[in-house]
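Customer escalation, tier 2.

The customer says the design service returned an amino acid string that "doesn't look like it belongs to this structure." They asked us to rerun it and document both sides in this ticket. The original structure tokens are below, unchanged.
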């Protein structure tokens, strides 16, 4: 079962909870959690010994539903700080090759050229991800060089200070390359992973 990144928004001094539906690897059927145990903790960093423990409840074990929560006293005691991730794994859009709508939220909005898109979207995205990554964590990018768009080179350049680099293939999902075209077939993609120096 692959790990996925989640951003949790908590307001201090309030009761907070989030419910999760855990699925099998096919992502179509719930994982039966009968007999499972679970715990959830929030720490300042991966290496920190102190932590805030979430309350974990199995809402429906058979259908893979569990809930984590914090009471208002626990959220009031939280210290605003920089929390970090173990891994970032993403496949960013390819400038104007993957356009899912004409909304202003699309990354190509106001970026007329690949260089503009690189400066205004991809570079800030990579730097933001790296700022949230723990020391020793992995920054993983599924990218290709397509025509004049040298995304492999650009991603590698943004990770030039990362000494440990690994590559592996993953089976990509069937997806739309744009909102006007048919769905692509699944294929194997090469993913490059860069370890943040400790």
């Amino acid at each position: 079962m692959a790990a996925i990144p989640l951003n949790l928004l908590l307001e201090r001094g309030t009761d907070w909870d989030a419910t999760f539906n855990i699925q099998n690897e096919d992502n179509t059927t719930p994982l039966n959690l009968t007999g499972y145990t679970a715990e959830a903790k929030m720490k300042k960093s991966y290496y920190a010994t102190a932590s805030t423990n979430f309350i974990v409840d199995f809402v429906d074990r058979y259908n893979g539903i569990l809930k984590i929560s914090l009471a208002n006293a626990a959220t009031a005691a939280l210290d605003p700080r920089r929390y970090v991730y173990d891994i970032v794994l993403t496949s960013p859009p390819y400038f104007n090759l993957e356009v899912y709508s004409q909304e202003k939220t699309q990354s190509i909005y106001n970026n007329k050229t690949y260089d503009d898109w690189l400066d205004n979207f991809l570079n800030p995205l990579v730097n933001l991800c790296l700022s949230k990554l723990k020391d020793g964590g992995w920054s993983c990018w599924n990218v290709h060089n397509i025509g004049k768009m040298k995304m492999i080179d650009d991603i590698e350049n943004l990770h030039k200070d990362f000494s440990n680099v690994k590559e592996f293939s993953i089976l990509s999902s069937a997806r739309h390359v744009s909102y006007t075209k048919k769905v692509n077939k699944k294929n194997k993609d090469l993913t490059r992973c860069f370890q943040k120096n400790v």
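Tier 2 assessment: The sequence is consistent with the input. The longest helix spans residues 114-131. The chain has a mean pLDDT of 82. Sent an explanation to the customer and offered a walkthrough call.
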